[in-house]
Amino acid sequence: MKVILIKDLKGKGKANDIIDVNPNYAYNVLIKQGIAKVANTSNLNDHKGQMQAKEFHHSEKVKEYQAIADKIKNKLFNFKLNVGSNGKAFGSINKQDVVVVLRDFGIDIDKNMVKDFPPIKSIGQYKITIQLIKEVSVDIIANVELA
User: pTM (2 decimals)?
Assistant: First the structure.
């Protein structure tokens, strides 16, 4: 019997997958607990429409993030770092500093979008990778100067 999963089911599939299971298991466990629904014509048409809408919205989001990526690709952003007379840095440039600089530029991101970024503790230029979503990542350049 074919069912459409409403929730993830370990070992069987993820939400919105259509799987084939034993009818007793489908009725007595999956449907009864709200984990799945019968894959009849009506539910399959609803499912198809929902999946098309989800795909459309995702493609729109990818286009939106691609436009943001094109706007900041290889752009130079300035950061200030306090350095003592002996050349040792006071503090560092971290992910949150990158988020603040991009927010000042008009781009709102989460600090978890900044990937593979150890704190910067010296003067120079550094490449920073920002993963906006799974399909779109962009590199910016951090120019770290004396404060």
Answer: 0.72
Q: Average of pLDDT values for 86-105?
A: 89
Q: What residues contact 47, with CB distance under 8 A and at least 6 apart? A: 4, 16, 18, 39
pLDDT of residue 93: 92
Q: What is the DSSP letter of 111?
A: G
Please name the residues in contact with 6: beta carbons below 8 A apart, sequence gap of 6 or more.
Answer: 15, 34, 35, 36, 37
Which residues contact residue 145 at a Cβ distance below 8 angstroms, ignoring those fewer than 6 apart?
A: 78, 79, 80, 81, 123
Q: Return the bridge partners of 136, or none.
A: 133
Cα distance between residue 18 and residue 13, in whole Å: 8
